[in-house]
Amino acid sequence: MQRTFLKSKLHRVTTTASEVDYEGSCEIDGILLDAAGIGDFEQIQIYNIKNGNRFTTYAIRGKDNSGVISVNGAAAHKADIGDLLIIASYAVYNETEVKNHTPTLCYVDANNTLTRVSTRIG
Fold this sequence. Notes:
The protein is mainly beta. It has one domain: Barwin-like endoglucanases. It is 10% helix and 50% strand. The protein contains 2 helices and 9 strands; from the N terminus they run βββαββββαββ. It has a 9-stranded mixed beta sheet.
């Protein structure tokens, strides 16, 4: 059997741009993508803490250390500048892999600068 588990998350990042007239996706600071192990064009789930919107899009790499979190295209209607988001990626694991799986949890400050990486909540 295969099961889907959280692979990684960026916790409480702040939306820095929301651009409707863009080709879609979510531009994310490259340092944050690397820390979370999220690849360019990988599917992500975004959960808007402010308004409860939850949506699927894909990640694109932003400039390293820019702090950018830009929600683009149709998804821009679901996040305003300043909204706090959780960005999550998931993966499918077999029973053997699940036994040793731990997600990568990335935490940031108010400027979307990485402050801590953990495998446990709290």
